[in-house]
Amino acid sequence: MFTALKTLHSEVCGEDIVDLFKKNPDRAEDFSVRFETLLFDYSKTRISAKVRTALTGLCEDRKVAAKREAMFEGGQINETEQRAVLHTALRDPDGPELLVDGEDIRAPLRQTLERMEKLAADVRSGVMQGPGGAFTDVVNIGIGGSDLGPVMATLALAPYHDGPRCQFVSNVDGAHIHDILQRLDPQTTLVIVASKTFTTIETMTNAATARRWVEAGGGDPAQQFLALSTSEEETAAFGIPRKHVFGFEDWVGGRYSVWGPIGLSLMLAVGPENFRAFLAGAKAMDDHFRSAPWQQNMPVMLALTGIWHRQVCSHPTRAVLPYDQRLRRLPAYLQQLEMESNGKMVAMDGTVLPYPSGPVVWGEPGTNGQHAFYQLLHQGTSVIPAEFLVAAQGHEPELAHHHKLLVANCLAQSEALMRGRSLEEACALMRAKGYEGAELERQARHRVFPGNRPSTTLVYPKLTPYVLGQIIALYEHRVFVEGVILGINSFDQWGVELGKELANTLAPLLAGEKSADGKDGSTRALLDYVRSAGG
Ligand code: F6P
Questions:
Q1: Fold of 3-75+293-412+455-492
Q2: Of these residues, 371, 401, 433, 446, which one is catalytic?
Q3: pLDDT for res 515
Q4: Does residue 493's CB lie within 6 angstroms of at least one atom of ligand 1?
């Protein structure tokens, strides 16, 4: 499928990206997309007009438009789980009738959102309290999509926090819940158990520990526990009263669930109005994604740069580099969104993919990353496409000089990756420092930057709830488009199952309840070590 693009790649791969700007002074404008207040710049890549035409041609060949409509209209596009994929409906509760299995889903969505808003208002105003008085803290217990979305968004919107403090417990490592609960009051803490299935072992173990902690501290689980889940049966079995359960349907995938009940901790932190603005930003991106022509369509062009770098140029990883400290969990969030969605080796029809799946996604906020791994980005032997994100303004006017430095660093990095520094330039630098002859050249070689390292930059005015909604929906749709082009199911996650099953078989072995005879030598030796070391 990528043959024509690979031929084009061999034609453009020798070009200096800097020269592309000399040949086309309008390149920055031509190779960027604007939507509302956002600017996505992909001009610092080797994508040419011809390459772009071939890339957008993939959208036609792979019927992206029809599949996109099937998603928005509730088609069962998650074919391996026979489910619709309708997280977009969560941010459009007032939209027109939308039928799933013959039932309109908008009215129940509205009711759930309104119940969440009522609860959030009651908690925030102190109408709903714990035995010790108004809730001071919220602990969201969940993992994967039931954690990463809420924690990422709650951290991102810190300037809007005016509700109880929110903490997040995900890891089954007891250290996580221990370190959080020890700072809290068991009588004024609201515990949210967030789990689509309500059977995830980590979450249920942490939830049981939290319940014991509340009981031991004189609290009342009946008053202090909420459940966010698709399973009425499991939440009832755990003992959470119905009025404290916020349900959703199986057509909301875990990693796409922050827009509904799973986002309750965010709503408690920032208030219902800001949560609505977050939904509205995402809805605006949905409308843009559904209607803009390929070349002016931000999620589509973001996806096509991804396809270009991974499947055509063969770069196996992609760095996500938010120059925004409050987006520090965005890389982790995107790891799940992108890698759990598109890290698949078979196509929808079960055949083995004849090309690579989605890339490894990783990153850290700037400028911190600059002092850690950017060395490799600039001079390592692998090319790693970088995706920068930065706001024009911060939230601290009194610290505007910090923000200017932050932006300067972000722009400097993409410029440096592109321009590099030639041996000649490095020699001139070393000559100016007094070096000569062979030593001059030896020293200069260490200071050469190959340049031509591609990057994209997403710029937004300020990280408001609305803008955050736009950004997250942008990435969701990017993943969708990449998945459709690759022909895979972006909405299942069978690859996480085997490890879970084996963990269940290992627990009794660790407890010494069963013999480890059936296990391989390495696993047996590791078990022996842990047991002999007191585990
Ligand atoms: O292990 C993967 C996964 O199934 C994710 O897809 C999901 O977000 C996470 O576990 C948590 O699942 P649940 O919300 O059902 O507890």
A1: Rossmann fold (3.40.50)
A2: 371
A3: 87
A4: yes
CATH for 497-533 (1.20.120, 1.10.760, 1.10.1390, 1.10.3210): 1.10.1390
507-519 tens-digit pLDDT: 899 988 888 888 9
pLDDT for the residue 414: 98
The finding on whether 496 has its CB within 6 A of some atom of ligand 1 is yes
Binding site membership of 230 for ligand 1 (Cβ less than 6 Å):
no
> What confidence score (pLDDT) does residue 511 get?
86
Give the angle subtended at the CA of 260 by the CAs of 201 and 160, to the nearest 5°: 105
* Nearest protein CA to atom 8 of ligand 1, as residue: 145
| Predicted confidence (pLDDT) per residue in 34-68, tens digit | 999 999 999 999 999 999 999 999 999 999 999 99
Which atom of ligand 1 sits closest to the CA of residue 200? Answer: 16
Give ranges for CATH 3.40.50.10490 in the chain: 3-75+293-412+455-492, 105-270
Q: Which two tokens stand for residue 96?
A: 């027109």
Q: Say whether 340 is catalytic.
A: yes
Alpha carbon of 257 to ligand 1 centroid (Å): 10
Amino acid at 289: F
Determine which residue's CA is closest to atom 10 belonging to ligand 1.
Answer: 144
Q: What is the 3-state secondary structure (H, E, C) of 404-450?
A: HHHHHHHHHHHHHHHHCECHHHHHHHHHHCCCCHHHHHHHHHCCCEC
Residue nearest to atom 3 of ligand 1 (CA): 144
CB 370, CB 386: distance < 8 Å: no
The single residue of 249, 340, 364, 387 carrying the catalytic annotation is 340
The amino acid sitting at 524 is R
pLDDT digits (tens, 9 = 90+) for 189-223: 999 999 999 999 999 999 999 999 999 999 999 99
